[in-house]
Write a structure and sequence with these properties.
This protein is mostly beta strands. It has no helices and eleven strands. The strands form two sheets. Strands 2, 4, 5, 6, 9, 10 and 11 form a seven-stranded mixed β-sheet that branches. Strands 1-3-8-7 form a four-stranded antiparallel β-sheet, with no helix packed on it. The N and C termini lie far apart (about 40 Å).
Length: about 120
């Protein structure tokens, strides 16, 4: 059984940095793409960033470009989401997801078929 576990979410202040992690049991990330999505209060779930494990290809939502970085740790089979210059509008539950999207579907929820339970990030102003 595949399980994705996110961690690292917490309450921080505007301008702070935070690092989220995503680890899997029941599969290895090799051959997949790993993405982060988020869902804020009263909002639809939205794409944040994704990385293709095989070649490190990445994609970001415009709202986080230049502030967030997604990276992979091959040795630990872990994906990180480094978040800098956090804003109150980044407040959301952050979800890790795994799938095999093509480039044009990198940011689409439907391209991912394993999902974690989420970790809460709250940014106070």
């Amino acid at each position: 059984q595949v399980q994705l576990v996110e961690s690292g979410g917490e309450l921080v202040q505007s301008g702070d940095s935070l690092r989220l992690s995503c680890a899997a049991s029941g599969l290895t990330f090799s051959g997949y793409a790993v993405a982060w999505f988020r869902q804020g209060p009263g909002s639809e779930r939205e794409f944040v960033a994704a990385v293709r494990w095989s070649n490190g290809q990445t994609k970001y939502a415009d709202s986080v470009k230049g502030r967030f970085t997604i990276s992979r740790d091959n040795a630990k089979d872990t994906v990180w989401l480094h978040m800098n210059s956090l804003k109150p509008e980044d407040t959301a539950s952050y979800y890790c997801a795994v799938g095999r999207p093509i480039w044009s579907t990198f940011s689409q929820e439907s391209a991912y078929y394993y999902w974690g339970q989420g970790t809460q990030v709250t940014v106070s102003s």
